[in-house]
User: Fold ornithine decarboxylase from Cotesia congregata.
Amino acid sequence: MKVSNLNERIHVLDGSSSVMSVVKDIVESGLQEEAFYVLDIGDIVKKHQIWKEKLPRVEPYYAVKCNDSPTVIEVLAALGTSFDCASKIEINKVLSAGVDPTRIIFANPAKPASHIRHAAAVGVDITTVDNESELHKLKKIHPHAKVVLRIRCDAEISQCPLGMKFGCDPVMEAPNLLHLARMLDLDVVGISFHVGSGCQDPPVFHRAICHARNLFDLMKEMDFKPYLLDIGGGFPGDRGTTDDVHVIAEPGRFYVASAFTLATCIHSKRSVRSDKLSPSAITHNMYYINDGVYGSFNCILYDHQRVVPVPLKNGCGKMVPSSIWGPTCDGLDQVVENVLMHDLDLGDWIIFENMGAYTLPVASPFNGFPVPKVHVIADENVWLLLKDILPMTEEHFVIGNSPDNLRLGLDIDGSKIDEWNDPAINLSGSDIIDDPNNSSPFIYEYVEVGPIN
Assistant:
């Protein structure tokens, strides 16, 4: 794959640099006002090493829906992972990275007929089902598919429960579906389950595997030859005897959650004074940043994530109750409801770590606010590991650790920095300063409002 745009290149950093030093270099350049990500592919490599050490027998099939960045897919393909796809578009993204179709499981139990037809045409044969109609569709469209029966076994605690939508009852429904598959002469090769995304109930895997073992025994009695056990996903990803059964899993957030760091800028501020006994005292600060729930923070609504704001600069003095809001005109666009923070100014930056899972794939440019761009980095060891393993090549990397290298490829798409020098626009904000003694380069007025609920 030829990589021509600097946006798509991976910047190879020296040993003195880190994610936060890159963020600071970009912020302090004065050229960047929009929110942006820094993706450390070395973090993905470390997660893969942890997976292989802790679960050596379980083959990872990365859940593309979690984060479908081409760079993420290419890095994981180079590391030898397989892929869990939910649509023909996701299948095509993985195939375009040079992945063999035998390394893909079409793990959507309810698929449009056109997507099944496409999977059959490109050689993706392994697919999951949990209902009668899906078996009949496969018989008609993809009769040679290798069928994996998905059962339901829900975790008591998870970020995103999935059992209400997918998975048949392992005791009441699964045996009937196996009998139907036998009547239709379909090849059922295994059992899958998904305990829920972001699982915090480890014993649930034991319960689900017990159900799978019982169904394996039943399948053998029915002359099926099961060999595949898919233990699904649900493995958290924040910063932390052998038989002939092939065990796979569908990790998503485990691989990418901590690899992405989001930097956002405060563009507006509203200070609330609601104490009638002390009318001049600030009781709450409302900060408006340039990304929100219609962008990266959709994870709050759809993935039930709790995000943690970290100011880029160190504060001092009294901590003030604060809330953080996105840039759109929708009152729903709230990122953090209530948090204690030192007083921040317009132009200050707030960092959010662990932002790689279920963020960018769902982000939209609602109200005209752009989806943050991603700046990709790696250290020299990661570069040496990946540069000669397809689909990664030398062309994927840019060698050098200079600030200019870091600034290129963000909002200016690899073009000249001079293009930022628009005489009609003063990014410093100096043209609105009235008071030369004012320590802040921004002007804002305080407004009396009611208490924050």
Observations:
- The longest helix spans residues 203-221.
- The chain has twelve helices and 18 strands.
- The radius of gyration is 25 Å.
